[in-house]
Amino acid sequence: MRKKTFAAAALLAAATLTLSACGNGGDDKSPIAVVSEESGSAKAATLLDQPFEKPDLVLTDTHGVKYDLRKETAGRPTLVYFGYTHCPDICPLTMNNIAVAKKALPKAEQDALRIVFVTTDPDRDTPTELGKWLKGIDPQFIGLTGDFSTIQAGARTLGISIEPTTKDKNGKLVSVHGTQVVAFSPKSDEGYLLYGEDATVDDFAKDLPKIIKGANP
Amino acid sequence: MKRLAVPAAVIAGALALAGCGGSGDTKAEVSVSSSYMPQPVSADLAAGFLTIVNKGSTQDELTSVSSDAAGSVTMHDTVGGAMEQVSSFAVPAHGQLVFKSGGNHLMFEKLKRKPKQGDMVTVKLEFAKSGAVTVEMPVKSATYTPSTGH
After folding, report:
1. Per the domain annotation, does A42 fall within a domain?
2. Nearest Cβ partner of A137 from B41, B97, B104?
3. Signal sequence: where (chain B) (predicted)?
4. Which of residues 78-97 of B touch A (CB under 8 A)?
């Protein structure tokens, strides 16, 4: 009897395994998105209990001029993203999402905002290349390039892990982008909000007016 | 012989049902939907997304992608913020292959001109079993996502 029960259980388990193995065949690994769907009013932003200090980054801007991130963005609402221009998908999407949301703000607020794109691929993203690319998205965006190890160390202080550009087996260059946008408060100059890759135009449009005041969305 | 093949197919179908729920069709049968290209920043580089559904009971394989609008089209998957070029993708039987933002994507390089929202880009997909499938891929806004539809 016990044996039979066991056999039945094993069969059931096998059937379950078969079922889950079939799935929809799609490579749909998005447990986080599912959670936010269920909660309905989920916020795109993660409010940090332990805010990040602004990284002490001194790099080169798209005009080839030295740019001290802490000094230049002190007291300004600031969004920082680490990406590269040879990125077809997430980097332009993220920057365009912010650009479209920004355009809905009154002009004074647009001017107050600092959107900083720090390249993770400084060899290819020279000041000129970076400037050309960002101009196609929003001419007010700031692009920074420089020594990779400096950029990597800065990203690391924000919990963002990036790796140097490498060559794949076909000899193509492969770079890595960060997966978060960090928002810094104009009041504390601390990074207090994180946005993941699934943050939309609407998310940024809703939150930017709050970020400009250093308030929580 | 033909008559014998029918019950065999039924049995095969039943077996497939027990496994995955099959139709008994023994061929790959691919169709493409939800394709789009977000308007790129420049003509250097663009991404493309689509869903390939295989209604057949045999796995197919996407082996290459090309377009007259671009110098090259390559297939990539994304692993932890880095993309990896892939030479082919399986399209499972009774399953689908999804290219979507943040995951698998097509990468168009050296486009003849910068695609603008409202344009159509002709894309040719080559499958190992189903042969060539041509898709008219609409160019959407730079911030388009299928979930919001804008």
Report:
1. no
2. B41
3. 1-18
4. 78, 80-85, 91-92, 94-97
> Which residues constitute the domain of residue A168?
50-213
DSSP-based helix, strand, coil % in chain B, nearest 5: 10, 50, 40
Which residues of A are part of a known binding site for Cu cation? 87, 91, 177
Containing structural domain, residue B113: 25-140
| Amino acid present at A8 | A
Number of domains in chain B: 1
User: Does residue A8 lie within any of the structural domains?
Assistant: no
Please give the tally of structural domains in chain A.
1
Whether the predicted model's global pTM rises above the 0.90 cut: no
CATH at residue A197: 3.40.30.10
The dihedral built from the CA positions of residue B106, B107, B113 and B115, taken in this order, carries a sign that is positive
Q: What amino acid occupies position B135?
A: V
Note whether residue B129 is domain-resident.
yes
Interface pTM, i.e. ipTM? 0.78
Residues of A in contact with B142 (CB under 8 A): 92-93, 96, 100, 137
Pair A59, A72: CB distance under 8 Å: no
Would B118 be classed as within a structural domain?
yes
pLDDT of chain A, 217 residues: tens digit per residue:
444 444 444 444 444 433 433 434 344 444 443 333 334 457 899 999 999 999 999 999 999 999 999 999 999 999 999 999 999 999 999 999 999 999 999 999 999 999 999 999 999 999 999 999 999 999 999 999 999 999 999 999 999 999 999 998 888 888 999 989 999 999 999 999 999 999 999 999 999 999 999 999 9
Q: Of B21, B46, B97, which is closest to A88 when you measure between CB atoms?
A: B46
